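lol forgot to send this yesterday, sorry. struct tokens for the thing we talked abt
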């Protein structure tokens, strides 16, 4: 029986093999999915990514390019181009413009493999992306990607945060993370980062930008980089501002290490890269910055400012400048009051609450004694737009205060120069002067206002 079976099989093979003409006429594209007819999507990938960056995009389902033990869905075709456009707009092009085309072509992974669903892990977490040896990136959860949902868990920021996180790993494979970075929160790393005790709030209290950042220092560095680039500086400042004081110090040290790493390792201005990405998010995807919880307007709204002292005799105005428009207004007012036998020296804005402002102007009498003119205003602060409006309070709120708005030698000048200025303009509350950046030792020691749509008309002073 066995011998007969073998003979029959051999005869069948020989029969098929002899029919060469029929085999040559078979259109293998009808049977072999490995050789599909190029589509419009393939042409776009080739012309935009492959020819320019030498990047191959594998979106046709290949089970063997990821962990075969996990059930992962194939990607939907209509999600492929939007995902890769976001990669192009918010990762490849910004790096190309800021670090140079040679840089991004050298370090960018050469293969993107796309899958439709997330990869579920045994500890209950999910994997959204991996970087393999610096050459291949696997992106999961493509089917849920939504360009119109910029901020959501399936939106542009979340997907590109994964991209920048994985690319940071690639950069770290070429230039190691400075040892100083892992020392900042060394005692608090926990490989079991998914445990219930490691909440988002706990991670923040310990000085981490996310729960996952606690898993190990390499992930911490990648999370810091990705959050700063994709969520932007205002988001990060808000995050730090709402953390405990010791955590704020740790987060700022990590931020400093990230910025320095990019400059030292690759000569990249991290702040310029951050601005470029966030400008593109706004221009292309209509993203918006969150309300700045640490803006000067927010400080006014949350009653963190008691007083602004505007004394143009101080050295800060020689160092940082003064608005010529405001200075002239002060000189004109001073000349008016001087002519009435009183001599104004400086002014201050007192904030009794988030809705009360008292303008106080010191003056000297003929004998050199010091007194104040008082003028009360209602104040309306919009933290999101930073707009501030002042309305004269009538009658004056504190009738018992010494000379509250009543002194005849000060009232004409007030009504001519300060009343219309304060009540007829909308002001923008800001950290002024703008030349003082966050690295300056006097950062947030001064604050003030400028007239909306006229930044040349401004005033600022020492905060108390």
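and heres what i got for the seq, position by position
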């Amino acid at each position: 029986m066995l011998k007969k079976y073998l003979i029959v099989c051999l005869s069948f093979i020989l029969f098929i093999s002899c029919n060469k003409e029929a085999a040559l006429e078979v259109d293998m594209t009808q049977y072999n999915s490995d050789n599909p007819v190029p589509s419009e999507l393939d042409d776009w990938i080739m012309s935009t990514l492959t020819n320019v960056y030498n990047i191959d995009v594998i979106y046709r389902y290949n089970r063997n390019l990821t962990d075969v033990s996990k059930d992962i869905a194939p990607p939907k075709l209509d999600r492929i181009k939007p995902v890769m456009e976001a990669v192009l707009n918010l990762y490849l092009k910004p790096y190309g413009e800021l670090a140079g085309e040679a840089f991004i072509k050298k370090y960018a992974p050469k293969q993107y493999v796309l899958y439709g669903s997330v990869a579920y892990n045994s500890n209950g977490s999910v994997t959204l992306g991996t970087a393999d040896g610096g050459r291949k990136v696997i992106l999961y959860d493509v089917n849920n990607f939504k360009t119109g949902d910029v901020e959501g868990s399936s939106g542009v920021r979340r997907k590109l945060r994964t991209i920048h996180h994985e690319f940071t790993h690639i950069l770290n494979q070429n230039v190691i993370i400075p040892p100083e970075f892992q020392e900042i929160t060394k005692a608090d790393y926990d490989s079991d980062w998914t445990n219930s005790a490691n909440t988002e709030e706990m991670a923040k209290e310990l000085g981490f930008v996310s729960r996952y950042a606690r898993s190990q220092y390499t992930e911490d560095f990648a999370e810091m980089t990705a959050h700063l680039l994709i969520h932007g500086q205002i988001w990060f400042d808000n995050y730090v501002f709402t953390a405990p004081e010791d955590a704020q110090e740790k987060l700022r040290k990590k931020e400093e290490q990230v910025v320095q790493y990019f400059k030292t390792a690759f000569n990249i201005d991290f702040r310029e890269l951050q601005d470029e990405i966030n400008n593109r998010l706004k221009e292309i995807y209509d993203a918006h910055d969150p309300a700045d919880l640490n803006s000067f307007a927010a400080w006014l709204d949350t009653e963190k400012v008691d007083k602004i002292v505007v004394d143009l005799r101080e050295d800060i105005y020689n160092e940082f400048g003064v608005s010529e428009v405001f200075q002239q207004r002060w000189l004109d007012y001073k000349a008016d009051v001087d002519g009435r036998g009183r001599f104004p020296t400086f002014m201050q804005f007192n904030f009794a609450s988030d809705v009360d402002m008292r303008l106080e102007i010191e003056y000297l009498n003929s004998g050199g004694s010091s007194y104040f003119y008082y003028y009360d205003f209602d104040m309306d602060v919009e933290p999101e737009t930073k707009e501030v409006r002042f309305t004269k309070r009538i009658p004056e709120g504190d009738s018992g205060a010494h000379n509250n708005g009543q002194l005849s030698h000060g009232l004409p000048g007030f009504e001519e120069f300060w009343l219309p200025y304060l009540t007829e303009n909308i002001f923008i509350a800001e950290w002024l002067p703008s030349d003082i950046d966050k690295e300056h030792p006097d950062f947030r020691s001064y604050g003030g206002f400028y007239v909306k749509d006229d930044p040349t008309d401004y005033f600022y002073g020492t905060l108390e």
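The chain is about 45% helix and 20% strand. anyway ping me if u want another try
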